[in-house]
Amino acid sequence: FLSPAAYGAGFLGPTYAPLVVGEGNPGVQAGDYNDAALRVRNLDLPTGVTTEQADARLGLLDFLEDDFLATRGGHTAESHRSAYKQAVRMMRSQAVEAFQLDNEPAELRDKYGRNPFGQGCLLARRLVEQGVPFIEVSLNGAANRQVFGWDTHAQNFPANKALCEVLDPAWSALLADLQDRGLLDSTLIVWMGEFGRTPTINPQAGRDHFPNAWSTVLAGGGIQGGQVFGSTSPDGTEVEDDPVGVPDLLATVCKAIGIDPLKQLPSNVGRPIRIVDKDATPIRQVLS
What we know:
Elements: H1 51-72, H2 75-91, H3 106-112, H4 116-129, H5 156-180, E1 188-191, E2 196-197, E3 209-210, E4 217-220, E5 231-232, E6 239-241, H6 246-256, E7 264-266, E8 272-274
Antiparallel strand pairs: 1-4, 2-3, 5-6, 7-8
Helix pairs in contact: 4-5
């Protein structure tokens, strides 16, 4: 399981916190999947509550918050109000139809894979169509395999085989689907983990944490594809050509989508923080 902090908005504050969909056991069995797992809960009004009654309740909430903020205003209170307003706006938007995956052709859904990750990639495409600017789909596990996903400290090879059987169809279907709909050129896809795995195999037939060398795939908007940048030594233990640090990768992502990586954002304590370290260098060779 990932820490809840991994899904937070950091110094940007709760106003910019993500909407997490499909929380649950990352080792969920593929056969247990159903569409309800990827729907946002509590979008509908409670049984017996009309729109007029809901509006009256929201009006009362606004009145009480106005009084509270007048004397106890602050970042936390403003974020609470903002979260409620965003939730109501979402409840009343046609964009929530993006979560109705059963509107998609069965054949296309099968291509993505009838599992949480595959259908999550399909949902991502539908959210792109609605203008959602940032979407993350996480592959945390596969049917009948260990719950820690790619953290393959033991039995690496059968675990990776099962994971790739989920990843590969969904990944390729997403790229093709975006391309067919004319969305790939305006959508940057970043396929990555947080570090690599050891080139050597441990006594448990697994591979351990390895930050010295690892790979990331960039595709779509702002990227000149069809190339490999950088290489490791023959044994995979060290980067020999064109090393790329994490700040460089993040600066490249920013440049690809038209964001100044050196832009400074104010934190919740007033401290300016750059999006990326000032010494980061975008990889010009992969930018279109």
